[in-house]
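User: Predict TonB-dependent receptor's structure from this.
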Amino acid sequence: MTHQLACPHRLLGGLSITALALMLATPATAQVADPQSPAVDPQTPPGPAPEQIAPDIVVTGSYLRNVRQEDRASPILSIDSANLAKTGVTSLGDITRFIPQNVGSAGGIQDLAKGGGADSRDTRSANLRGLGAGATLVLLNGRRVVPADGFVNLNSLTPEIAIDRVETVLDGASSTYGADAVAGVFNVITNTRFNGLKVSAQYTHIDDSPAATVQAMWGIGNDRFHTVTSAAYRYQAGLQNSQRDVTNFFNPSSGAGANPGAFTLYSRPQTASGGDVVLNGNNYSALYDRFKSSAGTVTVVDPNCGSSASKSRYVPSANSPGFGLGSCQFSFQAQNPIRPEAKSYLIHNDTSFEVAPGQTLFAEIGIYHQDSNRRSVPSYAQNRVGARPPIVPASNPYNPFGVDVAFIGRAIGSQGFPGYPYRLIQDKVDQGQFVVGARGNISGNWKYTANATYSRADISSTDRDTDMNLFQAALNGYGGPNCNIRYSGPGAGAQPGAGNCLYFSPFTADVSKMDPSLIYNLQSNVTTLSKIEYMIGEAVVNGSLAQIAGHSLDVAVGAQYRKEKQSNTYSDLLLSGFGGFLGPNRNTAFSREVKSVFAEANYELVTGLNINAAARYEDYGNFSTTAPKIAVNWRVLPQLSLRGSASKAFQAPSIANSAAVLISTNVANIIDPRDGTTTFRSVQQYGNPSLQPQKADVFNVGATLLPIQNLSLSVDYWHYKYKNQIQLQNGQAVINADPNGPNVIRDASGVAQSVIVSSYNAPSGTGTSGVDIAANYRFDIGTAHITLRNNLSYLATYDVDTGTVVYDGVGHRNNYQTSPLTSAAAPRWRNLAGVDVSIGDHFISGTWRYVSSVIDDYQQVVGAPTVARVGAWSVFDVQYGLRFGADKQYELTLGMINAFDTAPAKALYTGFLSTLGDPYGRQAYVRIGAKF
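Assistant:
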């Protein structure tokens, strides 16, 4: 079905939020113009007129091909390729920063809100309404893509040059697409009818972290055969916390995460002659006599804690004599990354061939590869030390205490090791999407589409961790790569500290004296291999079922079969549990089959009043669910349209979450309520076979008004209410609820080593609602074409269910001790406003982005008084474009993101709150392009 400009009395149907906020803000149904405006928008930025054959119109959120987008009630944000270019972003994922309805991201720069470090690779998810990445379904040309990172990485879908448009459905769409479309759908639609050659290159200057993208698209064909191939190479330099003022601050770590570390004395320190041990003028033997416990132990910090060489801070305990007792704080903040170094390659092809009149075969291929490097603090802390931590024996010549002492800390500190200033995490991602299918006419106006999709991702991640067995051997004098040491003990000829065998010292004063070959014992590579596969078969038929009272009853029916497979394989050290920080893990392999049937109908009850109904049934084997939806769109007047929709959406538990096994092991800061200490501890996640799909009631009502020529106003009220929301238990909440319970693993000394968590269906307390308002006004002054645009999202409610209590999260960071991992920062206001001016071959655009402030509740108890606030984020973007050449086939674009170099507001622990702002500073870019 080719699109034609609708007649005036139909134009308002389905208009919602207007265009994507950062763009021209043309009506949400991108193919429809204001009835008082020309069919071609005069504000289109410079660029050669595309030579294309009109394709079938894809209606996002519907399987009906003979019902137009503008006759549907679901609010849609739409952006085309020309307007995408206005942002200056270098990846598809960066668009989410410009969508007020998107609240943060899983992966990438926006994933720091919970207090962790940046992702180890270049990833970005959609997260509509702040309901979690898993609640937004991401599609490529209307088809599912494998969620390689637990979510679909937007940067892996297709080169930006190949994008025809991006459409975002802003209400529940499970009735059409099934699981995961709770908050909406993010659908990337490629240009399948392009003819010619198009190339572009962009360089983006960010202080200390530049980025570059090179792209090309080639299309050939005619009315019967057409193929379009696109390719892109993208590079981004890494950025460290030390390279930005907002993140380069002292963020103290103590206990097992400290540097220098701590040492436990099991007996009275003594010199070789039996005298007292005096270090830096302090008598440690007398300290032991005075403060030893009933078990005969006392723990002291490194004797050089607080020295300038260690860049640490000594914090004495209340009863400390001024040395030894207390904690040694060190900030690893500066050595961790803001974003990793990454390079990626992306190739995409769409091919179609009309084998007979009205019968077409099509294929789609997407191939993605990424290499990334994450540089961070050179040594992990010990989060599992056992009843007896690693022992520095009295025989170790570097041991100043003269007796056996236990060490708790980072194996090589945080200042690094000779020739090893940081730890490198390397990730490789290979992803492919392969589609074959057919579409065509059946009879009359009935059409069909059938396709098969194979989507796969292979991810290899290499990290480094302390091998606690080898580490102990090095403390005993059997260190180095050439020492004959085995797990069963020293081999023939091996002597501690002699020949090829070396002693290692964990004392800060000795680090510079260590032989670099000792790194063999101190850290070992650990690898994780993940494979995720989707195999999908789908068929849909649609057409007009009957004519009733002069109006067509249009229907679509279809079925889908989906097989999902996922496996994780870990290296020996991760499996053994002998790693100092990571693990233990277990190899896993899961698969499941999902069978679906669905139907949709649309009927124009009277002229201008469309009713749409849809439902989808999905069977997962151990559970099934049905998602219905009803929507009404009423064009009351040519200048006024009203709409409303109500639906039930759902998100199925992941394959792993439904298994009764250990599925992952992570690390988190845990406060032990028994003694108040905060340390890194293992959090072991087990699956839960009793999990049921989480469901949500979704409601939307809105209106679009065209009060005067070239002015459009749009407003939508939206509401989501969860039932049985799938949440992962908060490790801190588990240990708080029962410090001595079966889900807290303690060693013989009573020290918490691991916390066991699992997913569960929370009570139906989580919900959110708000109002989206958009406006767009186009006018001319002389030869200048001007567009004013604005897109506002107001958050009215954001109720967060912790599993035990529901609290109002609006205006909060939502990072309380017991906040679920899915909760996002929830500023009350998000707004984008701008102006676009085109004069001949010149184009100028300016955009203002604003996010309101939030209360900083990082690691507080729910209900505690406010202690800090993260300020608002307000930045301006500008762009200038020029089209030139004999046929205007060349383009030059200059622009700045955050033109005034505004720093993000400060936030506790992380330095900035990434879902509000970013620490990049001013980003200046230049882009050149040509089309032949």
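Confidence is low (pLDDT under 50) at residues 1-55, 107-118.
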